[in-house]
């Protein structure tokens, strides 16, 4: 037995290690609980390093701006360039301060206008794994954050907290394939489930093909998933296709346009109504009639016809009516097979030479056609 | 493979020697690789395709030329990566355990100091890693993760190319026994 184990020692160790991890995996899936201790260790080990790297990075950038950039400029014109460099750095600093203040102000304004209780947080890292869309934020359980809380920006939802550690939290982004949330469309009030596609896009699932969804329509959270309060923007429909068994609706998430830096964690959500879509005005404006132009309008073809008789068809109708009246023809009373008036005659000729009314049972002789000018 | 060629390959592997690394290197390099995965894509999204923990697993396992060592290296790096992901612990762990074992098995048989062999190994092990992760996610977690073969091959080539440079750099941390 010992020799057998020695012979297959490597494979045995491999199988044992895999088996142990399978047990670990099965425990987590079965009990729907996390092995929190290991994650706390890992996140606690990585978070300070991530912060240190971030400080080093910003320090290096500042150093590059303050020293390298200025050093090159000094070679050209020491005095003037030194002043310009100083102003540039100051400007850059003030701009960045202003941008930060703007972002914070926007977040603060959004926070104060929104009935939900929220806490601002900063993104400090991303998750591992090629397919996962996960970020870490610098607010954890000590800051009141707990797993299952919604993470948003003023533009829309960003994701949800999947784990809260003392100093940081893990956020599953809306674009992750495992992300799901209940949504409702703004215009047609169609319910569905948004899910990530792994890249910077999402789709809305469980929408019947019969339901109406149009490109450009906006989706909002439905509030039925227990995570996101109702009425938060989710995204805009970019494409709609008939699918099997459900309609395929692609969505561009509105929550993060550009780099994601500051977010809001919804500590206590309050449902809000879904904003009504602004309906296009139904008032119809008609242009006034076209002014008379050309010889035809100045001298109407039909004597007695109104100068602004309307369209060409109206003028033609007037002409035929006057020709018919001049020849004693009454429209709508002629028997089938009876002779029609000669519409080739000019109205004035017809008035000068009125045609004899045909006798009962007779047809009038055909009038000599004249060329129409 | 005949006995003679086996002998030649084994002898060649022995000639190159089992690589030993400084202890700090064995700890900091995998940690740095996982940190890279956490931190760098935040600023350079294009670098998200790089699977640094995998490349480090492959390198250390290849160089150790010890299947049990490779197994534990893969399991450790995989579990560390798992603990920073949103998936249950063990997904990357199992995946990288197998990668570490296979890489060490190959390292025992052939001379892995050659650039082309390293390139091919990095490529194939990347493809295996991605495919096996997809299988695990589907089979054990029931997740419908999209799997694009073309993209996998392309990203695998990029990873292998980066792996060559990384392996060259990591060679400098090596101490010959």
Describe it.
- The complex is a heterodimer of chains A (373) and B (177).
- By secondary structure, chain A is an alpha+beta fold.
- Among the domains of chain A are: 2-31; 36-113; 142-268, Beta Barrel (Thrombin, subunit H).
- Chain A is built from 7 helices and 12 strands.
- Chain A has helices at 2-7, 9-31, 36-76, 78-113, 294-298, 312-326, 347-352; strands spanning 117-126, 134-137, 150-153, 156-164, 169-173, 180-185, 191-196, 202-205, 218-221, 233-241, 248-253, 262-268.
- In chain A, the strands form 2 sheets. A 6-stranded antiparallel barrel of chain A has the order 1-2-5-4-3-12. Chain A has a 6-stranded antiparallel β-barrel with strand order 6-7-8-11-10-9.
- In chain A, helix 3 packs antiparallel against helix 4.
- The longest helix of chain A has 41 residues, at 36-76.
- The relative contact order of chain A is 0.08.
- The model of chain A is unreliable at 295-302 and 358-373 (pLDDT under 50).
- Chain B is mainly α.
- Chain B is globular and about 45 Å long.
- In chain B, helix 3 packs parallel to helix 5 (91-109).
- Chain B has a two-stranded antiparallel ribbon.
- Chain B has one domain (3-176).
- The two termini of chain B are 29 Å apart.
- Chain B has helices spanning 3-16, 23-43, 52-64, 67-83, 91-109, 115-140, 149-171; strands at residues 19-21, 174-176.
- Chains A and B meet through helix 2, helix 3, strand 1 and strand 2 of A and helix 2, helix 4, helix 5 and helix 6 of B.
